[in-house]
Amino acid sequence: MEFSLKDAFRYPFKNFRSFWNFLWIFLPVIGWFFLYGYFLQILGSVATGKDKALPKSIGFWTNFVEGLKFLVYLVPLYIVLGLISWLAPGWVYVLLSLFAGIPYIYLTPRYAVSRKFQDLYDFPIGWAMIFSHFGDVVLFIVFYIVLAVVWGIASILIITLVITLPALSYGTTYLEAKLYARASPKKSTTKKSKK
Prior knowledge:
The chain is mainly alpha-helical. It has helices at about 5-10, 15-20, 30-45, 60-75, 75-85, 90-100, 105-115, 125-130, 135-155, 160-185. α3 crosses α4 (about 60-75) and α3 crosses α10.
């Protein structure tokens, strides 16, 4: 599956109507949950090969519920990391945060495809993907930095943030889903035919 920086720049603008879903960020809490759900929808769509353009929202309240559910599912992780930050020295917290956080570049799209709670916490699978596709992970990080720098420079005029912030968010989500799709077994991205 193609993993292209050029496509990451183009992807946010292929369905300009859906591009404006990002404006829900200005509606505190409710809009934020919707956006989490919409980003999960993008991850799932791109990871399963529907990567031609931003998907049309499956519905405000559906994405709201999916975003809320995703954040609730992450609460155990935040509780554990919070306890560690309170009880352990700073360097231990940093190391454990990296250990827990890095696999999420694979686990989040995996959850977006399956919608199974356990897929958010399958750290052995997440780390196996990191190590077995290390070159792709490095490429993802480089592409992420390039997107951030280019869209950051384009944001020097504050008014352009209405375009550059969504473009950066959608572009990096696209890359994350592509990374997942490249690293995943082929069976996880195809549907079984009915007999």
